[in-house]
Structure formats: C-alpha cells, structure tokens
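To close the chapter, one final illustration. This time we ask the reader to focus less on the individual chains and more on the assembly as a whole: which components sit near each other, and how the overall shape emerges from the parts.
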Amino acid sequence: MTTVERPMGGRLIDQFEYGLDAPICLTWELTYACNLACVHCLSSSGRRDPRELSTAEAERVIDELQRMQVFYVNVGGGEPTVRPDFWHLLDYAVCHDVGVKFSTNGVKLDKARAARLAATDYVDVQISLDGATAEVNDAVRGAGSFATATRALENLAEAGMKDFKVSVVVTRENAGQLDQFKALTDSYGAQLRITRLRPSGRGADVWDQLHPTQAQQRDLYQWLLANGDNVLTGDSFFHLSAFGEALPGLNLCGAGRVVCLIDPVGDVYACPFAIHENFLAGNVRDEGGFQRVWQASELFADLRSPQTGGACTKCAHFDACRGGCMAAKFFTGLPLDGPDPECVQGYGEMALAARDASTLMPKSHIDHSHTGPVRGQPTLLGLPAMPPAAAAPAPPTRICDESPLVGLDLG
Amino acid sequence: MSAVVEFDADLPWQRARSVSLRPEPFGALVYSFSTRKLSFLKSKTLVTVVESLAEHPTAAATLTACGVTDAQRPAYVKALADLARSSMIERREAP
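The assembled structure is written out below.
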C-alpha cells in the first residue's frame, strides 16, 4: 500500500499520481520470441525465454486480473501470436471479462484467423507498421514486413473486422508520413494509433538516429491538435503538451501508478518501456501473485509519491508535461527528476549535451535478441544486413539460443 | 448498444448491464464492455448514486436518498447526464 497520504477531491490527474488499487490497463508481453528483428524493439525480443509462463500460469494471471477488475490488457511481445497457446489464452481472457488488445506484425493473421477475430467481441487488434511505404517500414522492421502487415490488414478488412488499428512508432524517417499513414489506415477502415519512440531495449542503440527532430516534434504536435480526436496515441506524447495547449488524454507518466508491464517470465516492471532491474517490482509467481506486487511493492510505492524536487518542478511548463517520460530519461543517462531528453522547451538537448564520459548509460541485462541471422533482417541506414560476427553462427548450445521459428516458412 | 438518450432525472435509471464498476480511493472506474470506453466517477457519493439508481423509482429520488443537497444537485444531474450520454447508465423499464 502507498504510504504517502492521498488528498481527497481535486483533479483526477492528481489522484492518479497516488496510484490505483489495480492498473487501468496493463501491458502483458506473452513471449520474447519474434520472427522479426526490428532495430528499435523496446523489449529486445527475438528468442523465446525457457522460463516463459506456462499456459496454466498465464491462466492464473488472467483469473487474478479478473478478480482485480482489470478491464483489459494490451498483449504484445515479442510476437505474441507465435505462442502455440495464444488463441486459447485470448479466448480464456475474454471469457473471464478481461478484454484483450493485442499487437502483432501480422505474421499469423491469415483469412481464417481474421474471420474468427471478426466474430469475437472484446478483442482489438493492432498491426504494427513503422513506415507508410515498404521502403521506410522495412528499413527498421525488416524486408517483407510491410507486405506481411498489409496482407494482415487486407484480411481483417475483408473479414469485416471492426475498429482494428494500425500502430505506428513515430521516427525521424516516418514523421513526414503522418497524412499517408492516415490515408492508408482509412483505406482499410481501420484506426490509426501513433506512439512515441523510446530509447528502450534495442531502441537505445538507434534512438540518436531515429528520434524525431525538434522541428518534427512541433509538426507532430500541430498534427495531433488537428487530428487528435480521430487518432489514438496511448497518451504517449504528453511531453508535447509543454508546447502550449494540452493534448487529449492523460498527461502524466502512468508508470507503476495506472499502468505496468508483465513480461514473458512473469516479471512485473513499472512500464513497458522500463525493462531494467531498477524498475522491477516483483514476479507474478511470487507469493501473493500480481496483486501483491501491484499493491505492496516498495518500488511502486516510491513511484506513487508526487515529484516535489528537481529542475523541472521550477519550470513554468511542469504542470503541462510533468517532466515527461521516466524511461526516456533513464535510458539516455539523464536524472529522473530532470527534463525529458525530447523536452520541447529545449532543456533536454542541453541536458544531453552536458553528458560526458562519466555519465552512466544504463543498459538492460535482459536481451533476447536473435544471435544468428534473421530472414529479412533490417538494414537501417545502409548498414550491412548481417554483422560479420553473425555470418557464421556457432551451433546453439541450448535450444533457446536458436530462434523458435527457424525453418518455419513465413512467406 | 443502447441508443443515445437524453437524461431525465424523473425517470427510472440503472447502471448499464454491460458496465463494470471498480471502486477506487477517489471514487470508481467504470468500463463499458459494449462501447469499450473507460470513465471515472470522481466522488464516493457519485459511486453510491450510480450503484443505487436501480433501487429507487427515479434518479431524482436516488439523489435525495443518497443525501445530495440542493446545492450539489446540478453537478450530480450533469454527471448522470454525461454517464447517460456515454451509455454508462441506461433507462430502466418501469416495473
């Protein structure tokens, strides 16, 4: 339980800072296995972890979410649909009043599956696409991934699926394609969802090259003000509110307060972008399960104390952006009570420039990236498709060193 | 999904059957499984009002029974009207 005394009444956003009895929604990554090797993968996914939750354990988590009245979960990965029990868990959740919104690259969404999804209530599908053209998308997600995603979109549209989403991470390369994304999405009768690139997982390796420029951030902000009502954002651009007018949605870091992440091995982190031991609150396999982690972990109690110090609290825009994204600061080596690296007032750039050789760049020890070559591996910025070390991969020493999808024809 | 209806406090209402309510320290979260919309009840009194709508002949009678004063009434009527518009509460057929 939180130890900080909660004020009564006031704004909802102030109440949220003190946390809730259960998350509003949570992200649940079902597997680290993935057929792709996206350069900016926030969870450094690729290989399955042998300690992954079993079907029975995953069902117990769903039972618990039902008891806690977590009304829906965002399911991701890795590529969640490569879990053989994925469709079973989907049905199990829906039957237990836990709605599911899952993100996929579309690899398993053939016509038959699309038809079944269209007939299921309480399920939302998000197809990931990081370029409105194959050229831009495949540079970060891998050759053929645009074709896979658009084929899945066609299948869903043809099956009469309602309200499915196209989910875009905004980068320097695709920030100029927002209108194209909207047109593409509209053409399938889908809804556009855009979210922020975080320097998390492999995203840390490409963030300098891929995060939008200040000018692009301003354009994005204007675009969101003009189109915000028809575009979902997961409230991930709240740092842009410091440009002036607040964006629709919750302008607050929800980490450990109203959201969290359950990873494939049952570890509970403060948010999907914070897979690092500093933000690990517990494991669903521990005594007391997820509920105890959410309600009693020391880390979450800390996160539920409103920020009172630090440079940002003195800024005139603090009430608009609330200091921005915790994970973005952490993985760029900035102090958590200082500005967001993409602070639109320019304080982030100054803080980044002030870093020196002594600045610790935190690196997550959790990395499930493929160690061998991957079909269609992305070739961002014209780098060679395959690093020399991977050209002659050593034979796997454990079964999980090998992609679970090796030999599987994904065409 | 129920059609969008004007809120009339002199009619019988109830929490919509497709809506779940989760108590929280500040009030409650309400979630509609039919519209998939999430909303918030910002006071414990409003939670009591929504949960006891079905026990009273009209919404107005519910407000009185829950101890809502005349001064607070317009704010509660507006809150209920918002909930009706978002299909969180629905008209109850008179018995």
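Chain B touches chain A through 14 residues (CB under 8 Å). Chain B is about 30% helix and 25% strand. With these observations in hand, you are ready for the problems at the end of the chapter.
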